[in-house]
TrEMBL record:
It comes from Marinomonas rhizomae. Residues 5-199 form the N-(5'phosphoribosyl) anthranilate isomerase (PRAI) domain. Belongs to the TrpF family. CDD domains: PRAI. Coiled coil: none annotated. This is N-(5'-phosphoribosyl)anthranilate isomerase.
């Protein structure tokens, strides 16, 4: 099964180019200033302007001001948006860009019903729920909570690593996987070896 890979939390050009070299399909940039992976619009747009073709930059926001979102996305027509807060469907759709909405899954959630709330999303990202932390937690959730058939492509996130990514893909069969902390050397800095192992693990099936 060909699974696409997004490497999230890119903060510098060297890591971006390294991830592309290993076959990343998408790179995530975090515009949330409480994250240790937070980048400025200028830094991110400078990196995006130097990316090779066929790699999608993803701008991650957590309940951000409209002005910040507009500042980022006007920097490049290539941006896809990841909404990782409690944004409504109409807020997400307002920017007229392809977007994915993150859902933080916990037991008892009706995942199909939550997905159905975002008919304009290109994909839905499923992440672990942790109280008080919007994402990048490094925690895995119970993948058996994900129904076999959903109305949108699924991007699986939350605590993925080079060690568990193949098992995750075989069990969940997502459209794509997304990783941040599991391929880091230190907060905000990616490990060449871990990125290589993660992508080859995700794409070897
Ligand atoms: O990466 C962050 O710092 C971050 C901050 C706020 C919201 C989301 C964030 N990252 C996203 O969280 C998931 C899971 O990350 P991890 O692999 O468990 O570290 C992923 O979708 C990141 O894009």
């Amino acid at each position: 099964m060909n699974c696409r890979v997004k490497i999230c939390g890119i903060t510098n050009l060297d890591d971006a180019i390294m991830a592309c070299r290993h076959g990343a399909d998408a790179l995530g940039f975090v515009f949330y200033n409480k994250s240790p992976r937070s980048v400025t619009p200028d830094v991110a747009n400078s990196i995006v302007s130097q990316l090779p073709p066929f790699v999608t930059p993803v701008a991650l926001f957590v309940d951000a001001d409209e002005s910040l979102i507009q500042t980022v996305i006007t920097g490049s027509p290539r941006w896809v948006i990841q909404f990782h807060g409690s944004e409504s469907e109409s807020q997400c759709a307002a920017y007229q860009r392809p977007y994915m909405k993150a859902l933080r899954i916990q037991s008892g959630d009706d995942v199909a019903a939550l997905v159905a709330e975002y008919p304009t999303a290109s994909a839905m990202l499923l992440d672990a729920y942790k109280a008080g932390v919007p994402g990048g937690t490094g925690e895995v959730f119970d993948w058996s909570l994900i129904p076999a058939r959903l109305s949108k492509p699924i991007v699986l996130a939350g605590g993925l690593t080079p060690q568990n990514v193949r098992q995750a893909i075989e069990q969940v069969k997502p459209y794509a996987v997304d990783v941040s902390g599991g391929v880091e050397l230190s907060k905000g800095i990616k490990s060449d070896l871990k990125v290589q192992e993660f992508i080859s693990g995700a794409k070897c099936g």
